[in-house]
Structures are given as structure tokens and as C-alpha cells.
Amino acid sequence: MPTRTVAVGSASGLHARPAKLFVEAAAAAPVKVTIRVGEKKPVPAKSMLSVLALGAKKGTEVTIEADGDGAEQALDDLAALLASDLDA
Amino acid sequence: MAEVVSLSGIGVCAGIAAGPLLRIADVPALPPPAAAADPEAEVARATAALAEVVADLERRAGRAGDETVAEVLRAEALMAGDEALLDGVREHVEDGADAVHAVDRAFGAYREVFEAAGGYLAERVADLDDLRNRAVAVLLGLPMPGVPQPGHPYVLAAKDLAPADTADLDPALVLALVTEAGGPTSHTAILARALGLPAVVACPGVLDVAEGTLVLVDGASGRVDAGIDEAAAEAARQGASEVVAAAAAFTGPGRTSDGYEVKLLANVGSVKNVPAADEVNAEGIGLFRTELLFLDRGQEPGHDEQVAAYRDVFAAMAGRRVVIRTLDAGADKPLPFLNQEGEPNPALGIRGLRIARQRPQVLATQLAAIAEARSQTGADVWVMAPMVSTLAEATTFAAAVRDAGLPKAGVMIEVPAAALRAADLLQVVDFLSIGTNDLSQYAFAADRMCGALADLLDPWQPALLQLIGICGAAGRATGKPVGVCGEAASDPGLAPILVGLGVTSLSMSPRAIPPVRAALAGRTADDCRRLAELAVAAPDATEARKLVA
């Protein structure tokens, strides 16, 4: 399954506004995307509560996964979003 | 006359108000578990209830005047409509729970995770509880918990205020806020200051006060008197309006009744606060916080951006004093670009001037920007450093300020060690400014955020006043200014005592200036000194307060 592993770029981590922007983007993706930290259980990327509960800070490596038509593009877009500093 | 019950908490926004106390609608109690005959129907009920909570939050977001509030409400709506939450509900129903208990448990699972994670997530627990309570109320056919709308003025009491409540709060009807939980940085405190409402947080017992009881709230001292009669309420209202009227009568510079001058200055964070300071005839700025420019930034703001921000305030204050504080980051104000995560005890860690030990360039850049902004304007710019503990730190800072071409260097007194050596510090700096909130925290070894220790953080604690007195005496001996820029400065009762201790300027949120000006005008300088001696000699804060009651 296509995956991307990126370090969270937002200064405040995957919280608050950065989390909201990521969740909204994941919900808008044409495929179902999951996100996980390390080898922990993957959670739906469009679930705000699950994404917050990851507790990912700036620099935490997260892995996103998706399958199906458009998965590669969706993952590239979401990975870029995760890697950028959404607090800036 | 009914018996009056006195409660006390932490005053977070000065002002007196009196009126009937009303609570945020009670959190619905969970009924005993019922056997769920039809699991699909239970899931459908839960789904519908959560959808109604989402719709309600979105309606509130639409009504909210403030974009920040709306954004917070929409984030809450995202949580209430979360698919993973619904999956949790479904699992609990499959385990035999009815809709109400399934919703309760589904939220509970996230609550545990958030609480265990600490930090930012732990602060979101209140939001989760709020969403859970709303969903449970819908399922039980009860009104969603929220701010009462009685159609007459009232004092709002709550355990703590959630962002969802604040959108519904009508500042024309709410006289004051009192919460059982919360601290000086809770939503309640932030909201109260934004709306200018007298507010007391961390006030145990306030939820035991019966609905409709007349209460008096003193947002300066943190006192809440429940069960006062209508005459006392009227007297308090009268008193409050007299303070306002008195303020109108004393528009000049701050002074005692016999003409001893005390500068009344405003605390500001940016040029946006300057009009409020002008409205109350502040004589200048006693605390220009520079953190705003640095907050929520991945990078330190550059030289030009800093110059522009400082120049805006200096230009607006041309001819007047502006005391600008260098970056006060760390502890409760961590800045991402400083990478301070992982300090075991941030309040005792690398904060304030201590950052210059590791990152001297941040201070150098800031001083250069302040100097350039000053050279372009006509303000009387004084520069001070936060979190100074020793003479060596003060000496190094003063040298850096003068090297930058700035005329006045001072230090804040927040650390008891610095207060004890105030006389030494004044040999190398031009002024002192006492930050009473942190000085309390460090003198009493009591976390500022800990509501349960509110009594220790009381600015009327005689030991705190004694430390302030040491600074005041050092100022008198050297003829150099000693200011107070913490919450204590905005307490009209305490202001004369601070002046009696030798404080020469008081800096506070602009709204607080008129009552303080009036309080000083009602005392002679000798009065102030006598009160100060008595307050320092008092056995405790309660007795000290009685001196001016």
C-alpha cells in the first residue's frame, strides 16, 4: 500500500489549527487515508479526535497510508501539508 | 438579614458587581443503564444526538462575532462529528450499552488519552466534557447545558467556562463571572479581561450557592459574598458607580490627596491597546510586552518587523514614558523557535533573560530594534529585562542596553533573590519594576496556574508586601523609580499600600486605572506609609485586607 513518512513541520505539533487543516484536507481526499506514529495502530486521518490523540509534536515522524485511485497524489499533498509549518 | 457566606478565589479582572447568581445549566446526570433492545436504534439515536450537537455548534459559530471564537467552535464541531467517535459508540452499543452510556464511554476513552498526554491535549479535556454533556442532554431530552438567558442582569457561575459558552454570553446582561475551577490563564480569565467583566476563578463553594442568591463579586480581591440583601447589593452597585464617577473627577496625573505623585501607567501588548490607555489618561506605558510579536512563530521576527512594531507604540506615546520589556518567553509562554520542550520544570527553567545565556543574539537583535524604533520617535523609552536574579545578570543586561544606545535600563523583580538585593541592583540599573504575579509564585513556591493554592498567591500576603517594601526602600535610598506592573497594581485597595512601601509607579490594564487613581486621591502619603507598615506587620492576607475595608 502506498505510504509516506514525514516529520511534522508545524512548530506547535499536530495540534489546534495544524490538526484542523490536516483533518479537513484528509476528509476532502478521494481515498481513505490513515495516519500512525511509528508502529502504533493506524487511525483515520479524517478523525480529529484520533489525530489529536496521536500527540505528534514538531519533528515527530508520522506515516500516512492510502490505497486506490488517486492515493499517490493524495498522499503527496497530505505529506507536504504535514511537513510544512502551518503555524507560520 | 440572611447570613452572608464569604467565598474566596483568585480575582482575575478587577471591578465590583452585585446581582443574582445563576449557574450554567447543570450537567445532566446519567440515568441507570437500560437494556438496549434494538442496537441499531440505539446507534441511530446516538448518531442523531451527536449530529444535533454539531449543528448547534455550527449555529453558534455562525453567530459568534469574533472569528477566533468561531474557529474554536468549528474545531469542536469537528470533534463532535468525528467518525472514530461514532465507531466507539457503535462498539459500546454492541457490548450492550444504551445510547446515553455508549456516548458517555466513547467520549470517556478520548478523555483518558487526552488527560494522560498532558499539555495541550489535557487542556482540551474541558472541550470533550462539554461535547459529551451536550450529547447526553440531547439524548435525555434535557436542554443542552449552556449559559442562562434570563433576560435580566446576573452573575454567571460555572465550574469553568468552555469556548462554546463564551459565544452565548451577553456582556450587557452578565455582570460578573465566578468559576469554581480554572486559573489565571483559563478561558474564563481571558474572556473576562476581553469583556472587562469583574471575575473570580478557582472559587471553591460557588456551585453550592443556590440559584438566584444575591452575590457580591470583587474581581480585585477575589472575594465573593453570597446571600447579601438587596440593600447591600444596591450599596455595592452604588459604590461601583461612585468609583466610576470618582474616576471622572480625578482625570489628572496619579497623586495622593496631598500631592505626592505616583505615575499611573498602562500595560499593553501592541499598538492596538494604546487607545484604551489614552481613554483613561494613562501617563505612559509601564509594561509593553513584546511576546505577542514572537508567539505562534516558527522563526524569530526579523529586525525590521520588530522595529515597526515597537515604533508604532513609541510613536503613539511620543513625549511619554514607555517601559518596554525584552522577550519574556518560557514557562507559561513557550515559544516554538526557542525549542524549550522537555524542561522538567519550565517555571524554574530557561525563561526571561535566562534565554540570553543560550541565545544572546535574540536579545541583541531586540535591543537593536528598540534603539532604532526609539531614534525614529519621541517617546521616553525605558528597557527592562524579565527574570533577573543576580547583580551579575543586571550588570550584563544594563551594559547591553547602553551598548545599544538606549538611555534607561531596568530589571524586573520577580525572583525573591533579586528583591532581597534590590539596593545592589539599583547601583547598576536605572529602575526596578516588580512583577507581583511571578514574585508571589516564587516567594511562596506556589504554581501560578494552581487554583488550589490561590490563598498563597494572594497579593495581600504580608511576606510579598515585605519583599516589595525592600525594593521600595532601595528606591527611596537611591532616588530611583520602583514600579509595580503585576495584578497587584490594579487593586485599588492595595495601591495606597504599594505607594506607602515606596513604589513610584503603578502599571495595569487600562480599565483598572480610574479606580486606582481615585483610591490614591483619597489618601495622604503619610496614610499610605502607615497602612503599608500595618499591612506588612499583619499576620496574614485577610487581616491585611481589613486595614482598608
What are the defining features of this structure?
heterodimer, A: 88 residues, alpha+beta, Histidine-containing Protein, Chain: A, four-stranded antiparallel β-sheet, 3 helices, B: 549 residues, alpha/beta, Glucose Oxidase, domain 1, Enzyme I, Chain A, domain 2, eight-stranded mixed β-sheet, eight-stranded parallel β-barrel, 46% helix
Overview of the molecule:
The complex is a heterodimer of chains A (88) and B (549). Chain A is of the alpha+beta class and 88 residues long. Chain A has one domain (3-83): HPr-like (Histidine-containing Protein, Chain: A, 2-Layer Sandwich). Chain A is 36% helix and 20% strand. Chain A has a four-stranded antiparallel sheet with strand order 1-4-2-3, with helices on one face. The N and C termini of chain A lie far apart (32 Å). The mean pLDDT of chain A is 90. Chain B is α/β, with parallel strands linked by helices. Chain B contains 23 helices and 16 strands. In chain B, the strands form two sheets. Chain B has an eight-stranded mixed sheet. An eight-stranded parallel beta barrel of chain B has the order 9-10-11-12-13-14-15-16, surrounded by four helices. The longest helix of chain B is centred in the N-terminal third of the chain and has 25 residues, at 39-63. Chain B is globular. The two termini of chain B are 21 Å apart. Chain A binds chain B through residues 10-13, 15-17, 20, 23-24, 43-44, 46-50, 52-53, 55, 57-58, 85, 87-88, and chain B through 71, 74-75, 78-79, 82-85, 110, 113-114, 117, 120-121, 124, 296-299, 336-337, 341.
